[in-house]
Amino acid sequence: MIRSAVVGLAILTATGHADPRKPTPRERAAYGMLTYLAHLDAARPAHPCSPTMDVTWGVAKTDPWDASFVVRCAPFAIGSTGADRKAGTADDLWSDRPLVEPIAACRAGCAKARACKVKSKACDASCARAPAETVFYVDTCTQLAGCTEATDCLDAALANRAGLVTCKVFAEAAAHVAKRPGAVAALTTECERDVLRYPELVCVASSTTVAELALCFLTVNRDNVRALLERNE
Hints:
The chain is mainly alpha-helical. The protein has helices spanning 5-8, 25-42, 102-115, 132-141, 147-158, 167-178, 184-191, 198-206, 210-214, 222-230, and strands at 70-73, 76-80, 93-94. The protein is built from ten helices and three strands. It is globular and about 50 Å long. It starts with a helix and ends with a helix. The relative contact order is 0.16.
């Protein structure tokens, strides 16, 4: 049985500038969005790169701070201007710039696996040589306090999967933030129309308002989720 996401998640501060060892929940959500969008763009037919090109393919048009995504053409990358919403500052994030330091992230993943009494490839030295996105997901898994969620997340990360969250866990976390326990069923249904990833879940659980929460994810419909949570019970 899946635990309540409220109990199972470590609630982290969402303030301050980017730290390569300790990214905030919102920075984690943003980086997950950027790498997802970069993969989508790589699958497109060849096209001229432009700093103003649309990279969102019908999903949410803004990052977790409600600013438009930015594009760098040489080398190609998709970015976010971060919490200060200003380009060229220390908190900018890019799809091709690692968010976490590999060795520290793998050690944290190993510690989480030991705490949950499971064997994990996160303990292998090879983790530190894995692609940046894999190491990022390993590190994000350590933010999940519940062993069920954390070990599922580690398994997904080390299998080079995006790490999809069950909609029930997302719905419980979002309903708790909004103090709308009766919204769990409707939120689960909304989520099942698309997908939610672990970095977005960490962001959802750390939010303090519905407006913040709605900006945590890229593919689940933000407007519908916000409307569901703001509706009086």
